[in-house]
Amino acid sequence: MAIVALAISGYLIYSAQSFSEKLVTKTVTPRNEMDEVPLGSVQEATQLLGKVFNWVSPEKNGKPVPLNKSILVILKGDSLFDLYVPEPRLRDPITNEFLVKNSIPDYRSPNVGELDADGDGFTNMEEFTRGTNPKSDQDHPPFTDHLFLRERTADDYIIKLNSSLDPYQVVLLAPRRDSAFVQAPFPKNFGFKDPITRQINERFVAQSFVKKDIPDPVLGTKDASELTILDRATNNTVVLVKGVDKNLADYFAVLEFRHKEVKEIKAKKGADFYIPGVATKFRLLEVEPDSALIQVINSDGSLGEKLPIAKR
């Protein structure tokens, strides 16, 4: 160990003796002998630093594409769509703002309007049309938007004034056959036998009778006497004309609730009903072959908005 230490020390001493020979002295030009400063170049450089440059964005297919900020540009066919400007619309009629503001997924998909971003059963197009939040299943269009009329059905109840002499005969033609006699003075309750209990159900109130004849090309005159009655089942006033069938049918609407799955609802005209899974109560006001009219029943029992229902 001592011999190794002596050898290293000897080498270091030897190297130190030649250290001064390895140093190189750099020659520096004295300040008073330096070249003249190019003031023109200095001034030009200073002016260049203070100059404001207007950046002109490059264009692609005639559309500016700024490089100093991030933008959402979609190439669709040969056209570019900037989703941060109103026009042109990438998924017309849905606005670009609606797609970007709500971060609609799959906006590149051609059928994005038919998709349901929040899984609430309403499409992006329906949410856009109604102005609701397509990313919140708590904010959606009204459920009645998915309610349609399939058909109108009826339980026929046909009656006819059969005579114009007191007592006045009123016959029931459907759903079964029966007859009743109404005798003055009025008002007078009357009705037909219940097929099960065999008891007379006094559904009607005879209110007045008018003897009436009208011209007839064959007979000369025709008996068109009128018996006015009140239908207590519907609270409607009905005029029976002698010899003319009057259908007091109970009309029903067969509705379809097409929300995630198709559910059938049968509602009677004038009666209340519920949509499956919806707490609101509704009333069927009118039902025609091609349309229906319903009304919201508020929680306090008051009548709310009337809503037309189209046939699907």
Structure description:
The protein has 312 residues and is mainly beta. It has three domains: 78-141, no CATH class; 147-152 and 250-310, no CATH class; 158-247, no CATH class. The protein is 14% helix and 38% strand. It has five helices and 21 strands. The chain has a four-stranded antiparallel sheet, with no helix packed on it. A four-stranded antiparallel sheet has the order 9-10-13-14, with no helix packed on it. A four-stranded antiparallel sheet has the order 18-19-20-21, with no helix packed on it. The chain is rod-shaped. It starts with a helix and ends with a strand.
Keywords:
4-stranded antiparallel β-sheet; 312 residues; 21 strands; mainly beta
Short précis:
The chain is mainly beta. It has helices at residues 2-17, 19-22, 39-50, 96-101, 124-130; strands spanning 59-60, 63-64, 73-76, 79-82, 147-155, 158-161, 168-174, 178-182, 188-193, 200-210, 213-216, 220-223, 226-231, 236-241, 246-247, 250-259, 261-268, 272-274, 281-287, 291-297, 303-310. The protein has five helices and 21 strands.
